[in-house]
Here is the input.
Amino acid sequence: MGDTMDDASWFQPRTDNARWALPADIRARDGFDGRDCGWVEQMRPFVRHFSQPGQTVLDPFCGFATTLLAASIEGRHGLGYEIDPRRAGLARERLDRLGLQADIRDGELATHGEQARADLGLTSVPYFGCGWTGEPAAGQLYLEQDYAGFLRGLRRVFHSLRGVLADDGYCIAMAENIVIGGRRFSLAWDLARILDSLFVAHEERVLCYPRPVSPLPHAVAASNRSHEYALIYQKRRETIDLQATEELLRAIEAAGFTFRLYGSLAGWREAGEPASGRPPADADLLLPADQARFDALLRWLVEQGFELSLWGEPVKPPVDLQCWRDHRYLRADRRGRDGSLVRLDLACVSPPSA
Ligand SMILES: C[S@@+](CC[C@H](N)C(=O)[O-])C[C@H]1O[C@@H](n2cnc3c(N)ncnc32)[C@H](O)[C@@H]1O
Here is the structure.
């Protein structure tokens, strides 16, 4: 790949300039020996292609500031969050020695990100079960005991990233599927599902790294794991298929369910002038607080080809009305074979009191 990104779906990052290498003495002072330090050349093409000079590139899992180093070389402002204070200090030292500037903050974006703002989110996510030997900082995702807790942590951080990212800004996360104790964890796929629920999915790029290759015994599936994915997402509103959505709303009424339409589709209808403004991203329905009717509607929607989710987690009816306490709405999506989208966000008229 040259200085501009082409449409190749995979590429091999250039070898890093020795100048950018993590200095041996800094590596030696890290509690994990800098084993998870990435490549500057892995990040540079994404910085160049998905941000403009002078803009802010945020890495919520900053590590040794490799992303911020790439941002700085490319004339962007780097902003990073690192949960391990010792490592954050080492990252600052790394940049100082190179005479490069960036803003590295201690802690997690979800709890320390009030003042943050970014034009591009770019990161390599922590790896579950990597045998972290550094400090046991609260919120350190390397130390999550179970995979579900680890995924909840990823969701928490990317949800915060969404909050501080400019409209239309990209969120790009590097991840790979992993094998621990002979058991495969589909970390990249699971991260993609989390990102799917927060951003609009665009593409993935496969990044390949040179590694030794060995022959395999017959029917053994293991690979040398020499690739990872750059998952490319954008903070952008989806646009629903208006005609299919209107047809669906009529069908819901005809099936005997009551609701009140509010939000962007209601406003769009009132304006009565589809050429003005942005098309709605969803149809917001207020439903009566009636558990039986709610479950009946959910079952009906499933029959009509809808997928149900609470903040990206798939759910099946029955779903407890209490879900509004934590999630505010239940999402129902139907994606057609022509690429169309009908999206309902279902909320309750009078949520049960906490
Ligand atoms: C894969 S490493 C990033 C490496 C980085 N790209 C580099 O090349 O230096 C992930 C980093 O996330 C940090 N981390 C883990 N949980 C975190 C959290 N909740 N908030 C912020 N940083 C976290 C880890 O300490 C680790 O330094």
